[in-house]
Amino acid sequence: MQVKDKTVVVTGAATGIGRALALAFAQAGARGVAIADLNAAGAAAVAAEVQAAAPDCKVFAQGVDVSDEAAVQSLADEATRRFGQIDVFCSNAGIILRKGLDASAEEWQRIWDINVMAHIHAAKAVLPQMLERGDGYFVNTVSAAGLLSQIGSAPYAVTKHAAIGFAEWLSITYGDRGIKVSCICPQGVQTNMLLGENGERKGFLQEGSVTAEHVAAATLEGIADERFLILPHPEVLEYYRRKGQDYDRWLHGMRRLHEKVMQEFGGIAV
């Protein structure tokens, strides 16, 4: 699939990977790009940036809480009204919670609603029109944590595994009806989630980290190839193979990595 002349919705687009994706789609010739984020002012700022970079692209911004099914449906309705249809939906918004068993039930619910249910809300909102056309693309930002795990965050590891599981089901169920699905699964990306608001956070994933623009470029390549797994860090595929080949050995190695991270970074992995 080529993104030229396609219409795209990107959530979590006020910063980081979402911003980079919106710019990359517009600069690649997308006909329309919807910029959505909980931070409505940030979304509007990125929309202005995207419009300046790609004057021929139709752009609009909308404040959206992706954990709210009705809000995601409203975003889909507005994008459809403005563009005529949605060709690509990038369900990119996500959060991290750096806790284990100390996370409260309310904290688990919040990260579940954003990291998992947002993908489900997007599919429910957009899938009917895609099935009617027999064509459509879901691009879900997940994480290498969905394939491997996340040192220092049980909620992040669990919800990202669940997000992969839903994307697999979506592809299996609707792939023969023209629906394409990709999961973006990077390791460290140089965003506020990794570095902190002021660059104060330290963690082992900063070594080997890539820019959000690198992730966006890899995403466009992955969409062109219609690959389910988009891996901005290619080594993740080898780690995933090792996990499948010898699960116990992989777990032993991860326990050693956990101990190293606890000693050097106080358990903070990202």
From TrEMBL:
Transmembrane region(s): none
Classification via CDD domains: SDR_c
InterPro entries referenced in this protein's UniProt entry, alphabetically: NAD(P)-bd_dom_sf (IPR036291), Sc_DH/Rdtase_CS (IPR020904), SDR_fam (IPR002347)
One function term, GO molecular function aspect: oxidoreductase activity
SUPFAM superfamilies the record matches: NAD(P)-binding Rossmann-fold domains
EC number of this enzyme: 1.1.1.340
Keywords: Oxidoreductase
Leading EC class: oxidoreductase
A Pfam short name: adh_short
Protein family (similarity comment): Belongs to the short-chain dehydrogenases/reductases (SDR) family.
Protein's recorded name: 1-deoxy-11-beta-hydroxypentalenate dehydrogenase
Origin organism lineage: Bacteria, Pseudomonadati, Pseudomonadota, Betaproteobacteria, Burkholderiales
